[in-house]
């Protein structure tokens, strides 16, 4: 379970100001925070106004889009883009863990 996890991944289509007010990502982040587990979010888009979601326990957010992109393009390539974003998130987590940034 989450008590023994090193990291938690969650995600949603768009992380925005409302994400801190009841979307699934904030619920997952709150549980992870309660157990001292870093919570990484992979999303279709991360709005600039989404910084408030960090208060719920989100450690870092990663968008599948690396720049301006049409939503239809992102949907067509979602599987590949989510995989790439999750890999980048995990690489960032592992780099921090190697430097002792996360200790249980």
Describe the structure.
The chain is of the alpha/beta class and 104 residues long. Helix content is 37%, strand content 19%. It contains three helices and three strands. It has a three-stranded parallel β-sheet with strand order 1-2-3. The longest helix has 21 residues, at 78-98. The radius of gyration is 14 Å and the shape is globular. 32% of the residues are buried. The model has no long low-confidence stretch (mean pLDDT 88).
Mean pLDDT: 88
Amount of helix: 25-40%
| Shape category | globular
End-to-end Cα distance = 15 Å
Give, in spatial order, the strands making up the sheet with the most strands: 1-2-3
| Rg computed from alpha carbons, rounded to a whole number of angstroms | 14 Å
Helical segment count: 3
| Proportion of beta-strand residues | 15-25%
Low-confidence regions: none
Largest β-sheet summary: 3 strands, parallel
- The H-and-E topology, N to C, reads as EHEEHH
Global structural class: alpha/beta
DSSP strand tally:
3
Overview in brief:
37% of the residues lie in helices and 19% in strands. The mean pLDDT is 88. The protein has a 3-stranded parallel sheet with strand order 1-2-3.
Brief descriptors of the model:
alpha/beta, three-stranded parallel beta sheet
Would you spell out the secondary-structure blueprint of this structure?
Layout: E1 8-15, H1 24-34, E2 39-46, E3 60-63, H2 71-76, H3 78-98
Parallel strand pairs: 1-2, 2-3
């Amino acid at each position: 379970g989450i008590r023994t996890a090193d990291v938690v991944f969650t995600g949603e289509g768009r992380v925005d100001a409302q994400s801190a007010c009841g979307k699934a990502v904030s619920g997952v982040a709150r549980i992870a925070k309660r157990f001292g587990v870093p919570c990484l979010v992979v999303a279709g888009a991360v709005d600039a106004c989404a910084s408030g979601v960090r208060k719920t326990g989100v450690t870092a957010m990663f968008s599948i889009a690396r720049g301006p992109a049409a939503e239809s393009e992102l949907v067509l390539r979602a599987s590949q883009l989510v995989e790439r974003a999750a890999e980048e998130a995990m690489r960032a987590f592992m780099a921090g863990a190697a430097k002792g940034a996360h200790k249980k």
